[in-house]
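Example: 4-carboxymuconolactone decarboxylase domain protein.
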Amino acid sequence: MTTTAPNTALPADAGDTQGTEQPAYAPEHKARLAFIQLHPDFYQAMVGLERANAKHLDPTLYELIKIRASQINHCAFCVDMHSKEALAAGETTQRIIQLSAWQEARHFYTERELAALALTEAVTVLTDGFVPDEVYAEAARHFDETELAHVIGAITTINAWNRIAVTTRMVPGHHKPRAAQR
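Written out as structure tokens, the predicted fold is:
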């Protein structure tokens, strides 16, 4: 099992607290299982899927898809990771903040992005047991078949990652964007 030291300090982005009393944050939970270390073959296969999905998608759109699916699945680890990656790829803070309410904040997104977000929700939730024809048709109107296949692959892959992270209680807050690691 992976262990993480309790979070006794403010989150890194809590803002300027100089001269004010700092609130006591809840302790950081521990991960249940070090899945990636215990199943490296699966991890490498998933990384391969990520590389394959990213080939025909704009990096910011790719991250918006991942953030939205992660929000729906309540995956704090992935919301944290992909919000940071989106910012590093040039996405704006405001568009990331509005993503959880994108249907009411449509003016922040292009028609192409809206189609991808609607498809992300339909594939992620599947409450009616299928993806509605109108949602698929709208996505197909904005993406050629190769791009659409990559969007569907991205949605499917992030949903798999979400299920791993939520099940094993991966700890959010520690991810450093790839651009910052170079």
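Confidence is low (pLDDT under 50) at residues 1-10.
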